[in-house]
Amino acid sequence: MTSKTSCFERAIFLRSLKKVALAAVAYTLLWLLILPLTLPGVYERALRSSDAVMEWSLGGAILNNAGAMAGALTFVYGLVLAWLVFFWLFRTNSAYHLASLPVKRETLFATNFFTGLLAFLAPHALVALVTFIVTAAMGAPLAVECLQWFAVVSLDCLFFYSFAVLLVMVVGQVAAMPVVYVILNLTVYAVHLVVSRLMKTFVYGMPQRMEGSGEIACLFSPLWALINERGPHMEHALIYDEALGYYKSGAPYLANWQYALVLGAVGVVFAVLAFFLLRRREMERCGDVIAVRWLRPVFLYTFTIGCALIIGEVIMEMISGSAARSNFILVMLFLFIGAFIGFFAAQMMLKKTVHVFKTSWVGLGVCCLALLAVFGAARFDLTGYSRRIPAQDEIASVSVEFGPYSAGLHNTDDAQAIADTLALHENILESRTEQERLLRSTELCYSNTMCIYYTLKDGKTLLRSYSLAAPKDCTDMRNPLLQFAAVFNSLPFVLARNTPAFEVTRANVATCSIEGTREATGLHEATNLSSEDAYEFYTTCILPDLADSSLGRESFGSLLEGPAAEAVETAADGDAFNYTPCYVEFTFRTADGGQTCEGFSIPLDAKRTVAYLEELGFDPYWEES
Asked: In this predicted model, what pLDDT tens digit does every residue of 246-271 receive, in sequence order?
């Protein structure tokens, strides 16, 4: 060995290579079993199809393994590699020995780090090459798909490996490092879920999952994102078949591959940070949970806050469930208990002793004050979030829905609908105290969750979600739940939910499928109408019935009973919400060449539609048993 600065030391490389050899072989064999050795089965299934379909099948099988499977395997393998090549940093003897050699720390890091790189790049290259050879032998050489798989899997592994290496530099305890690695890969998403639940408790009108926030939290938890295919994953192009009149799956392609590039770039940053941390690392701290002195306070307070949120949420669910969520003092008590556990557990890990309760409690007090400030501001609406109602002239469109997941899908710009929604929103805020009392009470009442979604003229959106309640004997339409039912079933919102977002013409009605029981045979059959007949059926029957029957409306009789149900049902006769055994679905062509569908279960009071179905020979009545 020499003392000159170098990026490579042969003896250290060979030593590290021996450590990772067995893991690399096992990893390679696993990928060979998962990818190239499964292709003959795909080939057999596609053998009777065209050459294009065979290529699509084989290509799809390759790209499909660049998503969730790649994320799960590289997550584990990246940890294993970092743990093996830098294991010497966990033991005082080996750390002192290598640090005493005439080899600079820069060389130690570079040689070990690039050994790990080789240990995953070589298996990936071998698997990609074998996969290409297998596809070529089948008559469909798929070089592009194999290269895409190689690039994505390698970028994923670079991220997880570099992140694990960074943690090795920070966490000096051999058992703690894998635990921290797993936790940090899921922390953002887990904390998002807990904070969302707590904020929904304190902030009136806040959805449990804010629009877009779940997606962002998922992307910042790479393991969760890859397993749930929010990162690179295989999709099929859609091809319109003129003869059949609908879209079919076409060639597979790799969607959202940019996420892998981001992971690779972040992995490079983590590697650089790990390099500088090793240069400054105190070797005598081997065995400490946190081996970098200035990061110890960071660990202490982030661990304390994390435990406050997670443990506080768990205690809340175990002891009193949702009943405690309306009690601000009780919720804060649970959070303080979690902070207490987290603070002193972190002290024990940092100081390697259980005798930590005589130390300063100031840090715990600071964490508790921070929690109180944040959630107190949320509880007392210091930001004005709960009180925010846009002015009518600010609103471009609005929708009211059962829950936030369909919010924004069925908007209407009707002026009366906007005015009705604003009146509903104002009434909900004015009735907040009574609504919270009803939801906490043990008296018999109905409740449901609804949301209001505003699209503003400046392009911004505003989403609010509320749990609404009504006593069982309620007939007062000023009750927010009953008022919501009336607004939800008003004509503008019925049309928004049940008609396309564009003008329906003869040219864009593709077809109509009708399913039901034939009166003559008693058999359940389906009929497809031509484009011309479908347009006539839609304009002369469906649209008029949407306006003056229960077609397209929600039967709140399933949510309310007795006087409350009668107060919101507006149908003219007993046939309202008494559905026929017929189902009608229209298919429309969109301007971009795609398709959209609208389906209807037909009630008996939709007189025009029922008469049309009878003319076609369908029986609108259920067979009596």
From this structure: 555 667 889 899 999 999 999 999 99
Q: Residue 436 corresponds to which tokens in the numbers above? A: 């919270």
Concatenated DSSP letters for 343-401? HHHHHHHHHTSS--TTS--HHHHHHHHHHHHHHHHHHTTTT-TTT----GGGEEEEEEE
3-state secondary structure of 474: coil
Please report how the helices 68-85 and 176-202 are oriented relative to each other, as an axis angle in degrees rounded to 10: 130
| Whole-angstrom distance, CA of residue 186 vs CA of residue 306 | 12
Triad 322, 325, 331: Cα angle to 5° = 130
Closest CA relative to residue 224, chosen from 175, 199, 173, 188: 188
Q: How far apart are CA 529 and CA 103, in angstroms?
A: 81
Q: Quick count: other Cβ atoms within 10 Å of Cβ 17? A: 14
The pair of three-digit structure tokens given for residue 554, joined into one six-digit string: 């929600």
Question: Token match 């000159």: residue?
Answer: 4
For tokens 């089948």, name the residue: 138
Q: Could you tell me where the DSSP H helices lie in 489-522?
A: 491-498
What amino acid is encoded at 44 in this protein? Answer: E
Angle between helices 39-46 and 105-137 (to 10 degrees): 30
CA distance 328 to 572: 47
Distance of CA 208 to the CA centre of its chain: 13
- Our CA angle for 447, 191, 344, nearest 5°, is 120
Residue 595 in tokens: 């398709």
Q: Are 527 and 513 in contact (CB under 8 A)?
A: yes
pLDDT digit string, tens, across residues 75-128: 999 999 999 998 878 766 665 555 656 667 788 888 999 999 999 999 999 999
For residue 94, give every residue at least 6 positions away whose Cβ sits within 8 Å of its Cβ, in sequence order, or none.
87, 88
CA-derived radius of gyration, the chain: 31
Picking from 254-268, 314-328, 537-551, which range would have the lowest pLDDT averaged per residue? Answer: 314-328
